[in-house]
């Protein structure tokens, strides 16, 4: 009996030993099955950082910012200054249409409304006036350099020509004379002097005619004096000498009282109908 019990106990222990490996194998199999699942999840988490690679391309915009300073128009600045000043320099004599001959005393900068503005400081000694003109607007106002000697000679030759006075109302002619005087054109100003000139043997000028004549004579003599490096008195004498060479007005015109500006009527032509036709054709 005892032997049978021992044999049964030995069988049960063998059975237990054989069962344990089976359980261990099952547990190992489950663990092995769980590992691939974890491996499958791991690649997903590892692949997440890949989208961060395109962000590294941001520094590519840096060269664009760096290229802007290289395009700064540092070389063009002197060209702009020359263009704005139109070649005018300090201490130079110029002709300002509305005021005549003046001298540039300086070129200065002023800040107006937060913006820097370059100005010509022009002095008109005879008028005791100083004018400041923006350098960028000299072309618009018609400021110019002094006339060349050849152009001055042409103006003096104009004074010797025959006076041309249209058969129109004085008020209209006065506007035309003022426009010529303020144009700054030395030849046009000489034409006004020629047309309004009266010799001692001719009728006296009206007050308005005299004013326009003196304004034109002043503009013309001042520019001629500066160009020829002479005085205004000498320039006026030269102008009057040229006017004395002009053809004298006909006796018929003088009898008609031509040249006395009548604001309400018409003026006679200085040289008769022939000159009127010439003016209309011109």
- The gyration radius over C-alpha positions equals 51 Å
Return the CATH topology of the domain at 149-281: Methane Monooxygenase Hydroxylase, Chain G, domain 1
Q: In percent terms, what proportion of residues is strand?
A: 5-15%
Q: What is the CATH class designation of the domain at 149-281?
A: Mainly Alpha
Strand/helix succession: HHHEEEEHEHHHHHHH
How would the global form be characterised?
A: elongated
Summed over residues and divided by their number, the pLDDT gives a mean of 73
Distance between the termini: 162 Å
CATH superfamily of the domain at 149-281: CarD-like, C-terminal domain
Query: Helix proportion of residues, in percent?
Result: 40-55%
Question: Total number of helical segments?
Answer: 11
Describe the sheet with the most strands: 5 strands, antiparallel
Second rung of CATH, namely the architecture of the domain at 149-281:
Up-down Bundle
* Unreliable spans: 36-48, 77-82, 249-282
Q: Order of strands across the biggest sheet?
A: 4-3-2-1-5
| Annotation, overall tally of beta strands | 5
Indicate the structural class: alpha+beta
Descriptive overview:
- The protein is an alpha+beta fold and 282 residues long.
- Among the domains are: 82-145, Thrombin, subunit H; 149-281, CarD-like, C-terminal domain (Methane Monooxygenase Hydroxylase, Chain G, domain 1, Up-down Bundle), CATH 1.20.58.
- It contains 11 helices and 5 strands.
- The chain has a 5-stranded antiparallel sheet.
- Strand 2 (100-112) and strand 3 form a beta hairpin.
- Helix 5 packs parallel to helix 7, helix 7 (186-196) packs across helix 8 and helix 8 (207-228) packs across helix 9.
- 17% of the residues are buried.
């Amino acid at each position: 009996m005892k032997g049978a019990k021992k044999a049964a106990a030995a069988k049960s222990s063998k059975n237990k030993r054989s069962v344990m490996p089976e359980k261990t194998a099952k547990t190992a199999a489950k663990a092995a099955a769980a590992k691939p699942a974890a491996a499958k999840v791991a690649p997903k988490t590892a692949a997440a950082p890949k989208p961060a690679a395109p962000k590294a391309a941001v520094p590519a915009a840096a060269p664009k910012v760096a290229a802007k300073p290289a395009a700064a128009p540092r070389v063009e600045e002197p060209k702009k200054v020359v263009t704005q000043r139109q070649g005018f320099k300090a201490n130079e004599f110029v002709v300002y249409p509305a005021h005549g001959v003046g001298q540039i005393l300086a070129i200065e900068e002023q800040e107006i409304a937060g913006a820097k503005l370059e100005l010509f400081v022009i002095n008109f000694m005879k008028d005791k006036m100083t004018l400041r003109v923006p350098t960028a607007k000299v072309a618009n106002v018609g400021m110019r350099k002094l006339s060349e000697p050849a152009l001055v000679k042409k103006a003096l030759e104009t004074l010797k020509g025959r006076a041309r006075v249209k058969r129109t109302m004085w008020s209209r002619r006065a506007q035309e004379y003022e426009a010529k005087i303020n144009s700054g054109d030395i030849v046009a100003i000489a034409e006004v002097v020629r047309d309004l000139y009266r010799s001692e043997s001719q009728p006296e000028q009206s007050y308005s005619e005299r004013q326009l004549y003196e304004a034109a004579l002043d503009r013309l003599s001042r520019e001629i004096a500066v160009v020829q490096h002479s005085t205004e008195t000498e320039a006026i004498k030269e102008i009057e000498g040229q006017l004395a060479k002009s053809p004298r007005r006909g006796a018929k015109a003088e009898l008609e009282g031509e040249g006395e500006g009548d604001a309400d009527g018409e003026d006679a032509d200085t040289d008769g109908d022939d000159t009127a036709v010439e003016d209309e054709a011109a």
